[in-house]
Amino acid sequence: MKHHKVIVWFRNDLRLHDHAALFYACENAEEVVPVYCFDPRHFAPTFLGLPKTGSFRAKFLWESVNALKRSLIQIKSNLILLVGHPEIEIPKLGKSINAKSIYFSQEVTDEEIKVEKALEEKAWSEGIGTESYWQHTLYHLDDLPFPVNQTPEVFTQFRKVCEKMSEIRPTLPFPKIPVFQEKKLANTDLPCKSQFGIEEENLSSKAVLAFKGGELEGQKRLNHYFWTTNALKSYKETRNGLLGENYSSKFSPWLALGCLSPRFVYQEVVRYEKERHKNQSTYWLIFELIWRDYFRFICKKHGNKVFQIQGIKNQLGDWERNEAVFENWKNGLTGVPFVDANMRELNQTGFMSNRGRQIVASFLVNDLNIDWTWGAQYFECKLIDYDVCSNWGNWMYVGGVGNDPRENRYFNILRQGKNYDKEGEYVRTWVPELQKIKGFEIHNPHELDKQALKQNGISKLENQYPSPLVSFKRWL
Ligand SMILES: Cc1cc2nc3c(=O)[nH]c(=O)nc-3n(C[C@H](O)[C@H](O)[C@H](O)COP(=O)(O)OP(=O)(O)OC[C@H]3O[C@@H](n4cnc5c(N)ncnc54)[C@H](O)[C@@H]3O)c2cc1C
């Protein structure tokens, strides 16, 4: 028998396609009430004093919620917008409209689980049922060939066993959403960002992409990357790039907020392989999505350890907490051009390439010896594509307390420059003080200051660019 009324609580799953909670609500209910709740805790300062959500991600979130609301209105539904703690506001709404149940997607990390549990308790005390659904990953939790608490620690093992023994489920069909009856209740206005202390920030004109939130925008990006430009065909060769919109897919912000379903991306890769090309690049995009799955299952397995300095290796380490040095890293003023260029790109756009993330994280951890959790927190604030599992999982990995089978994954910054920014074009883009310096020498202005600059008639870097925080000798 169908329930009369079910609330669907949208979280990091801001889409209509392949959405388990929405799909089953539509199967089980005569009336479906979609709700999103802006939780002030998501915008509050963390222990470093940084807002948990910076302005670029907040903008993307607002756009995504707004887009979801518009899509729902188009099919004669709507999206109720609440502000407050979901565990209080949603059961309260449920009671007021006499809902029978609340459906939502499961998360895996502590803060989110606490909210889920509190919401369930409150709902049950009001006589409202709850149903939660696994979402977010390519491989469904129930299809893993091992219990999640035995997830292999090493990525390659995880990937191989999943690829061999598990199947990726097809996407769920687009649901037929019952007409929304609660019109008089529907607060359809998005709250003002400033209410949460979020300040508008201008996107740099040098940004790789003007990311715009929402399901349709995510699908547009996929169409562009796969079908219009055929960029997928050469993904494996270009994915370590630094400049331009197509060196990698840039799907991450839409995946993080659930505007794109990873299974939909997978399905499109398979279609591309049938209709256009199948090669190492097409596989490699799936390979990267499996990394994403892996960090989510590792977080589910290890709980709060992923946020702790000793990580899942239980290794305390001898970290420094030098605020002045950390400030320089944050602001792209370390005097190491490749690091500074990446940090400035992050600060001015909310995005950084995967190569850049590896480099700046390794530099903070291995060269400056700063507490890796500080870096993770900074990224949490700044990244437009922040995903709790991918961010903390990757940082733990770089911090040497994760599950990297290789000890000391250290990046020689000059070698990285040589391999990935040979002509220095990337550094010149983001570090204007160094614009006059040509070619690879830009990666080592320290050396350059002494030698090449004089030949070029420029005796020093006009004191605009800071002296390096570490000696370049270690990379020579
Ligand atoms: C220190 C550090 C922090 C990171 N923080 C985040 C984060 O908060 N959110 C996030 O989505 N990614 C994070 N990554 C992973 C990766 O850098 C980004 O997913 C990628 O750069 C996003 O660009 P793209 O969508 O063009 O990626 P593509 O290269 O096109 O990859 C396709 C998709 O695969 C997934 N993916 C790729 N690489 C990884 C990886 N190493 N780990 C997990 N998933 C991956 C992403 O969902 C990505 O969108 C982090 C990496 C590092 C080293």
Write a short abstract of this structure.
The protein has 476 residues and is an alpha/beta fold. It is built from 19 helices and 5 strands.
Total domain units: 3
Percentage beta strand: 5-15%
Instruction: Please tally the helical runs, counting DSSP H or I stretches of 4 or more residues.
Output: 19
Q: Give unreliable regions as ranges.
A: none
Mean pLDDT: 94
Order of SSEs, N→C? Answer: EHEHEHEHEHHHHHHHHHHHHHHH
Q: Could you give a short account of the major beta sheet?
A: 5 strands, parallel
Tell me which CATH architecture of the largest domain applies here. Answer: Orthogonal Bundle
Spatial order of strands in the largest sheet: 3-2-1-4-5
Ligand types: flavin-adenine dinucleotide
How much helical structure, as a percent, in the residues? 40-55%
Gap between N and C termini, in Å? 72 Å
CATH superfamily of the largest domain: DNA Cyclobutane Dipyrimidine Photolyase, subunit A, domain 3
What is the gyration radius calculated from CA atoms? 24 Å
**Helix-strand category:** alpha/beta
CATH topology (fold) name of the largest domain: DNA Cyclobutane Dipyrimidine Photolyase, subunit A, domain 3
User: How many strand segments?
Assistant: 5
CATH class of the largest domain: Mainly Alpha
Categorize the overall geometry.
globular
